């Protein structure tokens, strides 16, 4: 028998167009089915052999949907009904692997347009954003399980903040608050504790969020770091009354701009910023008095506001000095929010709340795993030594 040789150019020409590729794929899959039956029976069609384990009994029709169209296949049967093909299971596993890879691309920040271009280049078919989203729905159970996991460790430090994302609801685009909690455990490792959606940053929303953490086992919180959001402050004071409260000094300095005229010399704010680099609270308060005396006449409104509120930003001075730069602001959580923004900026508007929560939680889990694998963020021994001393019970936030 003469074997026909197909050149590379002829093969490429054959594969041009979905119809030609579909026909080639259908022939190949059909041959695989026949080969599987031959192997199961121990003999080919019409072959006489002593190793035969059964006999064929016709075919039944089966459709297989692929990226190049639907294949119309004839699946062989045997008289005993023992033959089971693995073609469909293997194909589904490969399809699932591809789709999960696409979902990973989507989560990692690759735009929908680029995802479609990659899939079209690889397999002649582009997956839309809705298709990728439908595949990633299977991640929901895993992500929900992570965000509901029992908190079996103690978390000495808790950092809370929120950001807003746009979500389409009943045809109307609305802003939804994404509430995030980061904890630092007694071993000094950072962990993402929770990510939830809320209509807004109300006292009740934050209260429910914190109660959920306590129900999962949150305990041992020594310090909570937040901005000055009124609802958040009230919720912390109610749910975690024994914890110290640190007002983020970065947010504090931003708020100070509201008490300065636009044309004001910003040197006073720079000097105010330097107070947070002092070795202890006594030194910071001494320099604060000098700062107030220097700027009182020029910016009385600012000085009055600072004098009334700045003590809330000095709580971190009650911690070990090595922890000061890490716990005087919410910057640790702000960096996580920036990663959220990098990805959600591409999406712009989420089709629904589950889609929004799915993407942000996936990014949060990825960051959490990186933190767990990294070296310790803080050496907690100085805090343990500090707490061994008979310090007075921390005041409510």
UniProtKB/TrEMBL annotation:
Lineage, opening ranks: Bacteria, Pseudomonadati, Verrucomicrobiota, Opitutia, Opitutales
Family: Belongs to the transposase mutator family.
Keywords noted in UniProt: DNA recombination, DNA-binding, Transposable element, Transposition
Pfam families given in the database record: Transposase_mut
Protein name: Mutator family transposase
GO MF terms, alphabetically ordered: DNA binding; transposase activity
The keyword DNA-binding appears for this protein: yes
Superkingdom classification of source: Bacteria
GO process terms (BP): DNA transposition
Function, in words: Required for the transposition of the insertion element.
């Amino acid at each position: 028998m003469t074997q026909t040789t197909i050149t590379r150019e002829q093969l490429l020409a054959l594969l041009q167009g979905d119809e030609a590729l579909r026909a080639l794929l259908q022939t190949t899959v059909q041959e695989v089915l026949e080969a599987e039956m031959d192997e199961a029976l121990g003999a080919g069609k019409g072959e006489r052999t002593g190793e035969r384990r059964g006999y064929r009994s016709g075919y039944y029709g089966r459709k297989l949907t692929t990226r190049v169209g639907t294949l119309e296949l004839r699946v062989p049967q045997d008289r005993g009904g023992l033959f089971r093909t693995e073609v469909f299971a293997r194909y589904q596993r490969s399809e699932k692997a591809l789709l999960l890879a696409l979902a990973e691309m989507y989560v990692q920040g690759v735009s929908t347009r680029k995802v479609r271009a990659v899939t079209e280049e690889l397999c002649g078919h582009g997956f839309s954003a809705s298709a990728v989203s439908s595949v990633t729905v299977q991640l929901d159970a895993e992500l929900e399980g992570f965000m509901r996991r029992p908190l079996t460790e103690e978390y000495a430090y808790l950092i809370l903040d929120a950001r807003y994302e746009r979500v389409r609801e009943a045809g109307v685009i609305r802003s939804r608050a994404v509430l995030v909690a980061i904890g630092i455990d007694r071993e000094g490792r950072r962990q993402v504790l929770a990510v939830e959606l809320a209509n807004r940053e109300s006292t009740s929303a934050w209260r429910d969020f914190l109660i959920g953490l306590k129900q999962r086992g949150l305990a041992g919180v020594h310090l909570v770091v937040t901005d000055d959001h009124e609802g958040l402050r009230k919720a912390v004071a109610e749910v975690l009354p024994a914890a110290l409260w640190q007002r983020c000094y970065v947010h504090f300095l931003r708020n100070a701009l509201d008490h300065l005229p636009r044309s004001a010399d910003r040197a006073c704010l720079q000097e105010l910023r330097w107070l947070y680099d002092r070795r202890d609270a006594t030194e910071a308060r001494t320099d604060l008095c000098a700062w107030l005396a220097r700027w009182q006449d020029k910016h009385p409104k600012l000085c009055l506001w600072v004098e009334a509120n700045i003590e809330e930003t000095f709580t971190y001075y009650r911690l070990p000095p090595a922890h000061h730069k890490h716990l005087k602001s919410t910057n640790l959580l702000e960096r996580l929010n920036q990663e959220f923004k990098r990805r959600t900026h591409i999406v712009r508007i989420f089709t629904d709340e589950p889609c929004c929560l799915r993407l942000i939680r996936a990014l949060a889990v990825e960051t959490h795993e990186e933190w767990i694998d990294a070296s310790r963020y803080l050496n907690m021994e100085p805090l343990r030594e500090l707490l061994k001393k008979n310090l007075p019970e921390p005041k409510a936030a």
